[in-house]
Design brief:
The complex is a heterodimer. Chain A is an all-alpha fold. Chain A is 83% helix and 0% strand. The two termini of chain A are 35 Å apart. Classes of the chains: A mainly alpha, B mainly alpha. Chain A: InterPro entries: IBH1-like (IPR044660), IBH1_N (IPR059002).
Chain lengths: 190, 418
Amino acid sequence: MCPHSSLKQEFLKKWIMGLQRCSFSKKNMSILERKKTIKLSADIAMASARNGTTRWSRALISNASKDGSDNRLVQQILGPESNTPVAAITNKARTRRALVCKKIVKRSRRQIRRRRRKCVAAAPVKAVTSSIAKHLVRKRTQVLKTLIPGGEFMDEICLIEETLDYITSLRVQVDVMRSVASASVRASEP
Amino acid sequence: MNRALPEMLQCSDMTVLQRQRARLKWQTEQLRQQNYFCELSGVFTSQTGFQQGGLMNGAGGGDSVLSNMGMSRQLKPDPGLETAWPELGKINMGFGSCGYGNGPSFDMNHAISRTSSCPPAVAAAVGSKPVEVKGNSEKMGSAVGRESFKKRKVEKLQNSKVVAEDEYKRIKASEEEEEESKITGPNTIKISNNKKQNSGDTSKDNSKVSEVQKPDYIHVRARRGQATDSHSLAERVRREKISERMKYLQDLVPGCNKITGKAGMLDEIINYVQSLQRQVEFLSMKLATVNPSLDFNIDNLYAKEEFPSCTTNFPTVGMAPEMTNHSPFLQFNPIQQVVSGCGVEMGMGMGMNSSDMALRRTISAPVSIPDASFLNTTCFTGPQQQIQPSAPWEVELQNLYNVAFTDTIEASDLEMEM
């Protein structure tokens, strides 16, 4: 679990840094705004802790840098590593094109299969259950793709790998945020 | 190649030997070339005829081999392949080629055919019953059926080794495979790799999927009784990759040990990711309410903190002075003395333990985490908050002392928190 703790430290460092920089710029934000900045800085800190090695982190950063308002925060947190968002965007564009083509091919294949299935008169029970299972799996992968940042452009194998990494970083994020929250609560008490 | 030479020396038939040698030389030369596949089917007929001629010239052993071949329709498992290969080579050396020898010699012919030219002397020997041999080989090929290599040309070509039965079947199947699938580039790579493989790489043969040095291509062997279509093989590789990664996810996501299907696993994963994301939202909301000005001053935050966990590890945030600040707070709790004593290790331990805590919490009570987060967000000033922060620290302290703490402790602490 040693890499875990180092990840936590790095995340916390970047997060607090970003928040401190943010607090200088804006004053008197509403609670929702504050929550949004806190969450955003946490996400970006988490993603930058990966140093662009994973797709979800790159997607997250590029999504954040698209918004003009959030871009400043992104730049602040990323600091000297300003190359990462640019690389992420170009990477995404390339993969997007490839994946769009893949999608078109898949869709056409699916249509062909559907036409074939319609011709088949009686489908055995096994085929029906397997098709149901496949349908379920497909639906759930769609949902998972919406959950993972940048997941729509990944194939299944990459998706699962990214989910693994994303889950570990989310866990780290939750742990650190929880401890900071509890500490700040205790600190705010008289 | 080198192994073939001594075998060749043992062979009595010098003409066959010479032919073998020439063939082998051709083979090694041709291994580098990529257009073998095109010539493959084209030269097939002529080569089989040549092989037949070789058989005729060879000792009567050819016939016996052929008869063996006839009997050797029974499929042998893959593990036999590696051991069989050397024998295959010997026999091939001995007989030049027989109907069965068609297999390995066929591969050699492939190699020869790559250069799109066979030695004219060899070609002259073609003759006797090209059609018959071809028919024979085709029959054998169909009989071989399902054992097949995909992209394992290397192994086939390797051969200077010939073996009886299953080898032949394998080769036949692979011939079919080759004729069906269009493989170009990796052939040469596979061949060179095959040499290494043949030198006793049984594990590779035993495994269903193997990855060669070159990252571009993955060499798969079809299992017995399964389709040898290139598409289905690729799909099988993909499926195995996915299932392998799902296994990792099973370890990571709590409560997935009992679920076996992909759909159920995905469902659990989705729920877990959603719950984690929701937790992040709640915690950020809580932090927003606690800090009206977003001034997360770590110094102030951890002034009252019992554990110098994060502080000692963040020198950049100016945490160094915090170490001295902790001494007045040691009297808060006798446990804290121990905490201060541990110093940096505590911090590391904390980091580990809190993650372990989270893990164990999740394992023991998957539902409890969202509940805990609800507690955090809803009860800002409740007494539960007093209890909740201290309990985990105490538990984590226990972790430090008692490496193997049981889940019961965790459960009891969780109940305390709840």
